[in-house]
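Hi Y.,

Following your request, here is the sequence exactly as I used it, all 202 residues.
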Amino acid sequence: MRPTDRLVGLKVVEWKNPSLGESINIEKVRNAYISARENAAEESIFRQLRLNQWVKQSTRWMQMDKWDACAFPVNEEELIGRTCYGGLDLSSTLDITVFVLVFPLRNDEEKELMKLTLEERIAHGGHKVLRWMMDNVYVRQDTAGNIKMDKEKSTEKIDAAVATVMELDRAIRNQGSEGSVYDGRGILVFLRKKTSLADGEV
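Below is the corresponding structure, written out as tokens. Let me know if you'd prefer a different format.
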């Protein structure tokens, strides 16, 4: 059960915001409430600003049940010849080097990745290492709603998540200004590539 399910109902929000409908736009707060119930990072800032609650500055980012729902199969042969953007996160001696490829089908990148995941408009093929690193990500969010991965709080590896956000940003920036990239788009596809490691395959 998420904290918003335990602590927050619309009646509580109204009680905590006596100026609601006067100096505070009720629709804006209602939309923020809905977003907070779906997004842990937005939940943190909502609880702080609208419910006057003390919250940790860092919070887990990805809802893994939503991520797992996007484990659509990926046919690598269908990706041959397609436009592709790559994100590379290099490593030191004992770290993990990650190279992630994004194939777009036809704000800021962390928010965009979360949006695509919640809408099940992303296919990652159920890649186990990518899933592990997504589950490790903690984020910080400022009062303006900007989200940034917090490497200090993310004690396990998050390299693949970082690389994924990098190439998603590149894909968005290269779409040009011909309307929104998502106006008529299908899903975003990740290439699942098996790599031999010292202890086996992933």
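The chain has two domains: 3-55, 60-194.

Thanks again,
Q.
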